[in-house]
# Entry
Amino acid sequence: RVLFRSEMRIMESKTQKALKEVLRGIKMSSTAWYQDGFFYSRYDLDTTKAIFTLKNENHKIYYHKLYSEQSADSLVYEDQEHPLRSFSALVTEDNNYLLLFASEETSGNNVMLQNLKSPKKTWLQLVKGFDHDFSYIGTVNGKLLFMTNYKAPKNRLVLIDPKAPAESNWKDLVPESNDIMRDAVIALNQVIVHYMKDACSVLKQFDQQGTFKGDIKIGEIGTIDGLSASEKDTNLFISFTNFVSPAVIYRYNVVTNRLFNQFKSQLPYDANQFETKQVFYTSKDGTKIPMFIVHKKGVVIDGNNPTLLFGYGGFNISKTPEFKPERLVFLMKGGVLAVPCIRGGGEYGSKWHEDGTQLKKQNVFDDFIAAAEYLISNKYTNPSKLAISGRSNGGLLIGAVMLQRPELFKVALPAVGVMDMLRYHKFTIGWSWKGDYGTSDDSLQFKNLIKYSPLHNIKENVEYPCTFVTTGDHDDRVVPAHSFKFAATLQNKYKGNRPMLIRIDSNAGHGAGKPKFKLIDEQADIFTFLFYNLGMSL
# Structure
């Protein structure tokens, strides 16, 4: 039996019957359909090594023909000279070109192109290097439209002619603006661009000459978490969500400029009982940081509210309003939810991200600590009622700040966190995080990492917050050894009466794809711990 990462299965959309073939060795792969099959990415099938901790190497692109065995798949691309590169494939909507994206870290990629109509399977280099991001949006009059932060920290839309791909021939369709460009789609002959202004979504419409046609107004504080359109259709579908209600699907006609409510979930509660506002506070070095605060209307701001402060701060990921149903229980019981948009994320472009990386990583922790101090000084809560939570890189955040300022927090909830900053790059995909963290292989980075590495900064005779570490025993992104070592060291050195617990989910990974019953069990345990230690009634 092959136990290697994920499996990919195929279902006939009309009959909803699964085909017999099973594709294995899958990790972080897209599918690019072409003719009677699709391109996909995978690793070699290897059952002889410790696959859940082994460094991820030798990613390859294959073509799978439907109704055939995986062993018959055609190798499309590999790079034996650079075994740590990752690859993804995409076919342009007109089926003329296969685009190959290569990356070395979590940000930055190059782009190659193959003409699918040509009998010669040669690769043309469109974009060189790995310092900037390029994502394909669509095809405009035979030219490829990309969104990129190259020479545009807040992103721009640029047209590249595959027949004349030299940079001197590139043409801006939509230049960089003051707001962050997050995404774009082509609907009929219109280009719809999704911007982020102070971590909230804004939609703008342009024609294919780049002329601004107007705003698409949805209203209220929230996030567009999905755009879907076709170059052959007048309809744009928009998925819009916020902190207290799941996504509403809107349909927008790009010709008539009319917006329709296509689908809205029937909720078993009144979302209008809650309010969301955005505030700005000052971090340690004077930087202004935005933060969302959510609570029930009528909550008395008297410094005694149980408050959950959630953060991430890394990898250019923006923390915009998002719906998580488990938070509703906390909010309905009078809790306050706070989500700061700290540095390391992408809320204000590449500089905002870079100012929270490597030797500047402490900015992330300072931003989060300043958020806690704001909530306390502005009478939302107090240290005996304040809990902090984060996942993955956010787990690192929680581990670091609970050790740096333990007196500020009553409860800490670090989930699947990167806790050993000296050895993280030696396991699975960890090597790709060096752009954000740096590695201990460099003497200067070592000195920086050991200052905040959670595993290496636990002290005796310190009153740490009540801590509930969570992980999965098959996590092959942030291997569970991070959480194991952190929890064990914390339990060994802590001498007080507060609980220092770890919850290890069996047959579970980093979180994506976890079945509903496991999610419910995990969140029930987390919020029971949270409620009990904040003195809240269930």
